[in-house]
C-alpha cells in the first residue's frame, strides 16, 4: 500500500516526518505509537524521527554558520543561510534562525535601533537570496516580514534614486558617486535604477571594476571589457573604440552607465573612459 501514500515535501514539516515514520515503522495502532521511541514519548514527529536515526541533526549546519561568523560579513552569512535552507534541508529552521540571528543581523543592529526594522531587513535579504534560487521565505518556519515596517536601509538611497532619475528623465547629464558601506542598500539602489530604466524602454550599461562585484551583481560586464581598456594602463591610455563602431553607438544611446566598485579601479582607467 506504500505506493498509494501521498508524497510530502521536506518543507511541509510534521507532515513530512509523519510520512517518513509510516514508511519505517510496522504495525502502529495509533499516532501515539509513532511518537514513542525506546519507551519514551516525544512531543513531535520530527523528534521521534531524529531519535530513530531516520534524519540527521542540524548540528553540522549550525557549526558551519558558527565558524563562518568568525570571518564572514553578515551579508555573506545571510547568503549562506539561504543556501542552507534551499539545499541542506534543515529540520528545525526556527532553532537555526534563533541561534544565529545575532550574527545574521550584526551590521543592521549597529545602524538601527528598531528591533522590528532590523529583523525585517534581515528577512528581506534572505528572501532575495532565496528567490534567486527559485525559493521563497514563506516556505520555511521564519518570523514573517512585517509590511508595515520601513525596509529602507538608508536615507541616502532614496535621495540618490530620485536625483539620478530626475537627470535621466530630464536628459540632463550628471555624474554621481555613491559611497555606502556594506548593508546600506547599494545593491538595492542599483537594481531599482536598472529596473526603472529598462521599464521605460531605455538602454542601461552596468559594469564592475572587480571580479568579486561581477559575482554579486548579475548582468554586469567587466569595465575593461565593456570600454575596451588596454591591459597595461598609462597616463595617455585611451579606449580602443572607434567612433563608428557598434559599441560607440551603444554608449551614446545608454541613459545610465553604472560602474560598481569604481574606487577599486586605477585612475588611468577612469581618465581613459572620460
Describe this structure in words.
- The chain is mostly helical.
- The chain folds into three domains: 50 residues, no CATH class; 81 residues, no CATH class; 119 residues, Rossmann fold, CATH 3.40.50.300.
- It is built from 14 helices and five strands.
- Strands 4-3-5 form a three-stranded parallel sheet. The protein has a two-stranded antiparallel ribbon with strand order 1-2.
- A hairpin with a 2-residue loop joins strand 1 and strand 2.
- It is elongated and about 80 Å long.
- The N and C termini lie far apart (73 Å).
- About 2% of the residues have low confidence.
**Mind telling me which CATH architecture of the largest domain this is?**
3-Layer(aba) Sandwich
Low-pLDDT runs of 5+ residues are 151-155
Count every helix, treating DSSP H or I runs of 4 or more residues as helices. 14
Query: What name does the CATH topology of the largest domain carry?
Result: Rossmann fold
Give the H and E element order. Answer: HHEEHHHHHHHHEHEHHEH
The portion of residues assigned to helices is 40-55%
Measured by DSSP, the beta-strand proportion falls in 5-15%
- In total, the number of strands is 5
Query: Outline, from the CA principal axes?
Result: elongated
Largest sheet: 3 strands, parallel
Amino acid at each position: 500500500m506504500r505506493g498509494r501514500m501521498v508524497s510530502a515535501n521536506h518543507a511541509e514539516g510534521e507532515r513530512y516526518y509523519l510520512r517518513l515514520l509510516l514508511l519505517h515503522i510496522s504495525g502502529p495502532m495509533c499516532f501515539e505509537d509513532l511518537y514513542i521511541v525506546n519507551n519514551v514519548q516525544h512531543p513531535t514527529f520530527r523528534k521521534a524521527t531524529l531519535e530513530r536515526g531516520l534524519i540527521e541533526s542540524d548540528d553540522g549546519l549550525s557549526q558551519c554558520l558558527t565558524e563562518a561568523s568568525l570571518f564572514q560579513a553578515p551579508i555573506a552569512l545571510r547568503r549562506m543561510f539561504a543556501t542552507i535552507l534551499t539545499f541542506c534541508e534543515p529540520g528545525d529552521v526556527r532553532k537555526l534562525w534563533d541561534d544565529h540571528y545575532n550574527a545574521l543581523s550584526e551590521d543592521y543592529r549597529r545602524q538601527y535601533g528598531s528591533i522590528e526594522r532590523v529583523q525585517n531587513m534581515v528577512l528581506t535579504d534572505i528572501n532575495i537570496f532565496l528567490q534567486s534560487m527559485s525559493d521563497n521565505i514563506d516556505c520555511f518556519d521564519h518570523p514573517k516580514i512585517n509590511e508595515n515596517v520601513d525596509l529602507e536601509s538608508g536615507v541616502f538611497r532614496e535621495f540618490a534614486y530620485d536625483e539620478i532619475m530626475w537627470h535621466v528623465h530630464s536628459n540632463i547629464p550628471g555624474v554621481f558617486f555613491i559611497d555606502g558601506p556594506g548593508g546600506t542598500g547599494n545593491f538595492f539602489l542599483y537594481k531599482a535604477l536598472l529596473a526603472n530604466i529598462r521599464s521605460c524602454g531605455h538602454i542601461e550599461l552596468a559594469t564592475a571594476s572587480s571580479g568579486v562585484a561581477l559575482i554579486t551583481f548579475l548582468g554586469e560586464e567587466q569595465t575593461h571589457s565593456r570600454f575596451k581598456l588596454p591591459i597595461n594602463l598609462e597616463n595617455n591610455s585611451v579606449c580602443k573604440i572607434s567612433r563608428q563602431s557598434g559599441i560607440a553607438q551603444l554608449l551614446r544611446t545608454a541613459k545610465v552607465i553604472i560602474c560598481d566598485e569604481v574606487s577599486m579601479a586605477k585612475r588611468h582607467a577612469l581618465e581613459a573612459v572620460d
